[in-house]
Every structure is written in structure tokens, then in C-alpha cells.
Specification:
Number of helices: 16
Pfam families: Misat_Tub_SegII (PF10644), Tubulin_3 (PF14881)
Oligomer: single chain
Structural class: alpha/beta
InterPro entries: Beta-tubulin_BS (IPR013838), DML1/Misato (IPR049942), DML1/Misato_tubulin (IPR029209), Misato_II_tubulin-like (IPR019605), Tubulin/FtsZ_GTPase_sf (IPR036525)
Shape: globular
Subcellular location: Cytoplasm, Cytoskeleton; Mitochondrion
Organism: Solanum pinnatisectum (tansyleaf nightshade)
Distance between the termini: 51 Å
Number of strands: 20
Strand order of the largest sheet: 5-4-1-6-7-8
Radius of gyration: 24 Å
Family: Belongs to the misato family.
């Protein structure tokens, strides 16, 4: 087994992580349910890659994510930082014998659990289970109404990422940054994160939690890190990743750099805009030095993008947008946990398994030496039917970051694609061979094709768990099929109407990312490096000297030069 340890740093990163782990929990449940579709029972995924087995003090076996979450203090809502599986009785504080005066204790009321979490707790305690066995017919209607109430509750009020999480976490997983509260309004730049991290003993404590998970791995294949890079958590992430690079130099780190679209909705003055531009450049430069492959995601308006053509997203809701990014993350990490077939046999359920190291070498290794990838997604993926093949898996793949060149001819492009749960004519589940043939046909009919492309495929679609938001449009059917006519009655559909969807994603190393990189380099030069730069004092207040800023400029310049070696010189003015 080749294990993966997951790290989630920042509020939005944990929103993404919450959806991601809900997908995994749904797969585990469907694999064991006698009523579920065979495609979920035969998913051929090794869940031990992401999960660990354990045992409570009472001798109960546990199966929890191999994950470390870092966030504000108070960001867990009604959930305890020790989780709910390992309920240990906290020792009472000893009396302070040096104080002779009166002692008063002030304690805030615990947050009330929402309807979803209340129902989850009742189900786990078995309160409803016995009653359900008495009369299945009479129980159908109440169960459906209850689920509807839960969905409506989540749509109207999700404040914390734990509000919609249905997963049990290990006590070592959830870490809150003491002294940094969730209601802080100005934690909006790299410098603040760096200061907050260095000013406490956070580093050592987080390192210990990561070490707990890494040291129990037999053969770790890598660390996948989701970072909320829009504010101070990018500084926190950089400090943590520096420690990881020192302690685990041979373990590849895959960085999922995420940004909440709701942050783009606030109007900014010139001073704030300069701070924003410099933060973007500094964050990207520093974080890229601390990983092997970086996957930036975060459209200014996800709802208005072509990636959402079959969705109904509300950008102001992190609960909505994070579900899209989590779906993409689930899809591109599937090859990391596909069960390997023996060389003489070909699996009926999966094909094209890769580990994290192989993916890094393919996209950022000797063939291209570019570590910044573009993540394209089709959610849901259209049918594989012959007359739609080219449109389905090339024309419908849309990038999840801005400033990307369209229709660029890059004869050295390298990519890896993953398609899972695809359907074909008559909404029939497509076989692995049908997926391969359709993709090959699409490339044959395309004007350009990459220098190298790797295809991974799985018959297992993306399962839609109950707490998934109602973001599907009225052209999406029960199994994610795209309908010819819209469903009347509602513009959006959720987990009660859509149970699974086919997905197609592509990670590519291409010159199409150049405008994205050049914008960051240009802003750093203009506002931070050039003589009289308006943002130079701000960078100094973040703890960066002139030489450090110039070094960050060189990092970004090298990224651009790698993709455009004959048209750009880092020495030019």
C-alpha cells in the first residue's frame, strides 16, 4: 500500500476538504450497502491509501482520514477538536493555591448542532434504526421529508465547514490556531499569516500531528495539501511546508492552491488592491518553492464561468463553490488509489493507475519541467456517444483558474486525464474500453493534440452524498446524464434528485498558463521591485527585505522562462 497524508490549511481549504471526505465516506457506505449499485461495490479503489485503522480505549475499531486540518480558533462550530470517536474525559483543573481571592468561571454556551448533525448523531446511536425495521412502507415518506428538511437547512445556513461534514476524524487531525479567532476580519495577507505562525508554538504542535500520521505509514507516496491562499493562511502554509521539506525531503508534496470566489466580490481601494496584488505574487512564489506540483484553482466568478454551464452556483456561498473544487480534487486523485492489476490482466473497473510521484514526473519532470498545471473539468461529463465524443471530452473541459490562453498551440504540452462514471448511448454505463476509444477518437478529430497524454478511467461515478449542495441545473438527471429538455419546477437540483454524476478532468502542463504567471510577475515587479515601487514599504512590513523580494521575482521569472524561453529574459528591464 502507498499511503497519502492530506493537509488542509485555512477556512476555505477545509470547506473543500469537508466535501472531499464526504465523497470518500459515501463510497465506503455504498460499497457495503446491499441496495447500492454494483458500480459502487466494484469501485476497485484502495481506500486505505487515504484512511487509517485505529482503536479507541474501549476497544472499538475506527477508520478515519489520514489528515491534518489547520484553521482559526473557533472554526469547528459545534464539533469538538478531539472528534467524536475518542471521547476522553478531560481532567479537571487543579485549584490555584497561590490565589486566595474569589474565583469566577465564565463559559460560553456550546453551539447548537444543525438539523443535519443532529440527525447524523441519532443515526449513529441507533435510535432510529430499530424503528425503521418495523414498517418500511410507512417509513418512506417521513424519511424523505426529513432529508428534504436537512437539505433546506444546509442551503440556508452553513457557517462552518463542520456543519455539513459526515466524517469522523482522529483527535490528531483537527488543529486550531490558538489566539487567532474565526471572526477576525483583517487576516488578509501573507505577512499576517507569517507573523501569527511565528509568534506562537504552532509549528512544533502541527509538526507533531503530521508526524503521527506519517510515521505509521508503511510506504508513503506523498502529501496532498489544500491551501486557502487568499489571505494569511498562505503565510501559515509556507511556514508549515518549510518544516515538511526539511523533515521529509524525499516525500513529494502536491499543492492544491484554492481561492474562494466570494472574496473577489468585495470592492477594493487602490491601497488594498496593491496589497492584494503583492500578496498573490508573494504567496504563489513562496508556496511553489515548497512543493513538487502546484494546482491553482479559483475563478473570480465560478457561477459565470463555462465550467458551471450545467450548474447553479452562488459565489457568495463557500458551501457551493468548494463543492465544485472538491469534486475536481476527488477526480484527479482517483488514479492515486486505484488498485493495481496484475500485468497479464486488465481490470474491468479501472485503468491507468498512477501514484503521486509518477504524476509529478509526468507533468513537471524532464519532459516539460513546468510545475504549474491547469486543472480543467467537465461537471458533469456529457455522454460518450459517438457523435458527441469530441465535444464531450475536449470542448467541455473548462479551466478552474483565470487568465488562461484559449486555443493555444503548444506542441510540447503534457497532460493526464481522468474520466470516471462515463455514460454512453441510452445513458448506459460506458466500459473502460469505450472510454479509451472515445478519447482517442476525440483527439484524432482535434486540430492539435498534446505531445504526451495519459488516460485514467474508472466505471465508478462521483457519488452525491446527502449534504452536497443543490448546485445542479435542471438539465442534469438522476445519474448525472444531461437531459434534452429541462426539468420544470426548479432551477436547481441537489442530492435528493441527483444521486451520482460522471466526471472528466484534465491536468495539463501547457504554455496556456503563461498569462496567469506573467500577471503575478508583472505585479510583483511593478509594485514591489521597481525603483519607487508603491508596495515596497508594505513588503518590508511583512518581513521581506529587498533581496528576498528580488529572489521571489526570480522564482516567478524562471517559471515564465521555462514556458517561453526564447521570448522572455529575466534580466530584461
Amino acid at each position: 500500500m502507498r499511503e497519502i497524508v492530506t493537509i488542509q490549511i485555512g477556512n476555505y481549504a477545509n470547506f473543500i476538504g469537508s466535501h472531499f471526505w464526504n465523497f470518500q465516506d459515501e463510497l465506503l457506505g455504498l460499497a457495503e450497502s446491499p441496495e447500492s449499485d454494483q458500480v459502487f461495490k466494484n469501485h476497485s479503489l484502495d481506500m486505505d491509501v487515504l484512511y487509517r485503522t485505529g482503536e479507541t480505549q474501549q476497544g472499538l475499531l475506527t477508520y478515519t482520514p489520514r489528515m491534518v486540518s489547520v484553521n482559526f480558533q473557533g472554526s469547528l462550530g459545534s464539533v469538538s477538536s478531539r472528534g467524536s470517536l475518542y471521547n476522553q474525559i478531560q481532567a479537571k483543573n487543579m485549584d490555584v493555591v497561590t490565589w486566595k481571592g474569589r474565583v469566577t468561571t465564565h463559559a460560553s454556551e456550546p453551539l447548537r448542532r444543525n438539523l443535519f448533525l443532529q440527525n447524523l448523531s441519532e443515526e449513529e446511536q441507533g435510535i432510529m434504526g430499530k424503528a425503521n425495521d418495523l414498517d418500511n412502507v410507512n417509513n418512506n415518506s417521513p424519511a424523505e421529508i426529513q432529508d428534504k428538511d436537512i437539505v433546506e437547512c444546509l442551503e440556508s445556513d452553513v457557517q462552518y465547514w463542520t456543519d455539513f461534514s459526515k466524517v469522523h476524524y482522529h483527535p490528531q487531525s483537527l488543529y486550531e490556531l490558538s489566539g487567532l479567532w474565526a471572526d477576525i476580519q483583517e487576516f488578509d495577507n501573507y505577512g499576517l499569516g507569517k507573523e501569527a505562525f511565528c509568534g506562537h508554538q504552532h509549528g512544533e504542535e502541527i509538526d507533531d500531528r503530521l508526524r503521527f500520521f506519517v510515521e505509521e505509514c508503511d510506504h508513503i507516496q506523498g502529501i496532498q495539501c489544500i491551501v486557502d491562499d487568499a489571505g494569511g493562511f498562505s503565510g501559515v502554509s509556507a511556514m508549515f511546508l518549510e518544516s515538511i521539506a526539511d523533515e521529509y525531503p524525499n516525500v513529494p508534496v502536491l499543492l492544491y492552491n484554492a481561492r474562494n470566489p466570494s472574496l473577489h466580490m468585495d470592492s477594493k481601494g487602490r491601497k488594498q488592491a496593491i496589497s492584494h496584488y503583492l500578496h498573490d505574487a508573494v504567496s504563489f512564489s513562496r508556496l511553489s518553492e515548497l512543493c513538487k506540483l502546484i494546482i491553482p484553482v479559483g475563478l473570480p466568478s465560478l457561477s459565470g464561468s463555462r465550467a458551471s454551464q450545467f450548474l447553479c452556483i452562488k459565489d457568495e456561498k463557500p458551501y457551493h463553490s468548494s463543492a465544485v473544487y472538491a469534486s475536481a480534487m476527488h477526480s484527479f486523485t482517483l488514479p492515486f488509489r486505484m488498485k493495481q492489476s496484475v500485468p497479464s490482466a486488465e481490470s474491468l473497473y479501472t485503468s491507468g493507475a498512477l501514484d503521486m510521484y509518477g504524476t509529478v514526473q509526468m507533468l513537471a519532470g524532464q519532459m516539460r519541467q513546468n510545475m504549474v498545471t491547469i486543472l480543467d473539468v467537465a461537471i458533469p461529463a456529457p455522454s460518450l456517444s459517438a457523435d458527441q465524443a469530441q465535444q464531450s471530452f475536449l470542448g467541455n473541459l473548462q479551466p478552474l483558474i483565470p487568465d488562461i490562453s484559449e486555443d493555444v498551440e503548444d506542441f510540447h504540452a503534457v497532460e493526464t486525464m481522468n474520466i470516471h462514471g462515463a455514460v454512453t448511448s441510452g445513458n448506459r454505463r460506458a466500459s473502460i474500453n469505450e472510454v479509451k476509444d472515445a478519447v482517442e477518437s476525440a483527439y484524432d478529430n482535434s486540430v492539435t493534440r498534446p505531445k504526451f497524454s495519459h488516460l485514467s478511467a474508472s466505471t465508478c461515478p462521483l457519488p452525491i452524498p446527502l449534504p452536497f449542495p443543490s448546485i445542479f441545473g435542471n438539465m442534469v438527471g438522476q445519474h448525472g446524464e444531461l437531459l434534452e429538455t429541462p426539468i420544470s419546477g426548479s432551477s436547481s437540483r441537489g442530492s435528493l434528485e441527483v444521486h451520482s454524476i460522471p466526471m472528466a478532468i484534465r491536468l495539463r502542463s501547457s504554455t496556456a498558463v503563461l498569462p496567469f504567471l506573467e500577471r503575478k510577475l508583472g505585479n510583483l515587479c511593478r509594485f514591489g521591485i521597481e525603483r519607487g515601487a508603491l508596495g515596497a514599504p508594505l513588503l518590508q512590513s511583512w518581513g521581506f527585505g529587498k533581496d528576498e523580494v528580488e529572489d521571489m521575482g526570480e522564482v516567478l521569472s524562471k517559471m515564465v522562462t521555462t514556458l517561453k524561453p526564447y521570448q522572455y529574459s529575466s534580466d530584461s528591464d
